[in-house]
């Protein structure tokens, strides 16, 4: 579109964040599609779109987006964790374990450690 500019894309990105927070993941995806079409290298937009796909139960598109993010940012603990949740939800538990463990190794947050099976021993 001729009237689209970088400021419009920032506004769309922020609006997509709000839509996702308001539990409208499909609306978020729609806004992010135009941002990513213009800026396919924008990893933050792709990560947000992956989260929106996941929230909309569109697991295959979510998986593909999370994997693309991880190709660009292999040390992104959240992306590993979210990909693992996506794989787990789509019945690929064995593949999910690897990403849960990578997330926990990269960032020892309690939820990552617990998902990886590294929870504290009581």
TrEMBL record:
InterPro entries in alphabetical order: TPR-like_helical_dom_sf, TPR_2
Top-level taxon in the UniProt lineage: Bacteria
Keywords: Repeat, TPR repeat
This protein's name: Tetratricopeptide repeat protein
SUPFAM superfamilies per the UniProt record, alphabetical: TPR-like
Pfam families referenced in this protein's UniProt entry, alphabetically: TPR_19, TPR_2
């Amino acid at each position: 579109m001729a009237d689209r500019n970088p400021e419009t894309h920032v506004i769309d990105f922020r609006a997509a964040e709000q839509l996702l927070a308001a539990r409208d993941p499909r609306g978020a995806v729609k806004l992010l599609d135009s941002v990513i079409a213009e800026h396919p290298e924008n990893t933050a937009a792709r990560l947000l779109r992956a989260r929106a796909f996941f929230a909309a139960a569109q697991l295959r598109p979510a998986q593909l987006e999370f994997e693309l993010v991880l190709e660009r940012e292999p040390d992104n603990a959240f992306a590993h964790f979210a990909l693992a949740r996506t794989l787990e939800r789509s019945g690929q538990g064995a593949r999910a374990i690897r990403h849960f463990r990578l997330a926990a190794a990269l960032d020892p947050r309690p939820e990552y450690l617990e998902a990886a099976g590294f929870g504290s021993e009581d």
